[in-house]
Specification:
Blueprint lengths: L37 E4 L2 H6 L6 H11 L6 E7 L13 H11 L7 E4 L8 H8 L4 E7 L19 E8 L1 H5 L13 H16 L3 E6 L1 H4 L2 H10 L1
Parallel strand pairs: 1-2, 2-3, 3-4, 4-5, 5-6
């Protein structure tokens, strides 16, 4: 399976709250997993506070900063939280906000979008991403679909690459530990599900970027190693 994985980290944890000057994790960092690129997440100011409105200056600053990585720069993730109906009434309201923003994205970069509202995973939302070549982030989280379920009603691959995040149950695992240096939860069964599905995606010559959060099993690098062994 190792030939399937182009990159399994690192994804910069430092920049989610603020635009970094330049974040490159050292090889001896416990968060670092050997890879060819650095993928990173847009600041919360863009995705959570302004929610894509009046954020052109912050967007430009962030992309210009990350461009310092040159050919080491991987996909840039727009990671959104769960939205209640006070934020967006329904499945059509968020794409109406998202679509104009996607049209302004530079075509020489790779972007992915992550949402936490599973009822928004419908064909028209995927088409909004596909029109701009933006990947839908496939996530493993307690209230989101299981791997095979992502593909049951539509094709969730909306770009020439896909972006996978193994997130897990944050509250559940933090009840057991706050130290992220070893496996706490055996996730081999879940990773086997992903290996089967992503193997089929790989046969379509879709590049895969996969990232393991420490909260998924207890130690992100060990999760990646387990996946590569499957």
């Amino acid at each position: 399976m190792s030939s399937l994985v182009r990159l399994c980290g690192p994804r910069s944890p430092e920049q989610f709250g603020n635009t970094p000057f330049l974040v490159v994790l050292p090889h001896n960092s416990p968060r670092h997993i050997t890879g060819e690129m650095l993928s990173t997440t847009f600041p919360r100011l863009v995705t959570h506070e302004k929610v894509l409105v009046n954020c052109d200056a912050e967007f430009k600053e962030f992309v210009q900063t990350m461009d310092l990585l040159g050919d080491k720069l991987g996909p840039l993730l727009l990671q959104f939280g769960y939205f209640n109906k006070k934020a967006f009434l329904g499945v059509n309201d968020f794409p109406a906000r998202l679509k104009p923003f996607l049209k302004r994205l530079p075509k020489d970069h790779r972007f992915a979008v992550e949402i936490r509202n599973k009822n928004w995973l419908v064909p028209q939302f995927i088409e909004t991403l596909r029109e701009r070549g933006v990947a839908l982030a496939l996530i493993d989280q307690s209230w989101m679909p299981r791997p095979a379920q992502w593909f049951e009603k539509f094709d969730p691959i909306s770009a020439d690459f896909t972006y996978v995040r193994w997130l897990g149950d944050r509250k559940g695992i933090e009840a057991q530990t706050k130290v992220w240096d070893k496996v706490i939860v055996d996730r081999r069964a879940e990773l086997s599900e992903w290996a089967e599905i992503l193997g089929k995606v790989h046969k379509r010559k879709i590049q895969l970027f996969a990232y393991a959060n420490n909260h998924f099993a207890g130690f992100g690098p060990a999760t990646v190693e387990m996946f590569q062994e499957l």
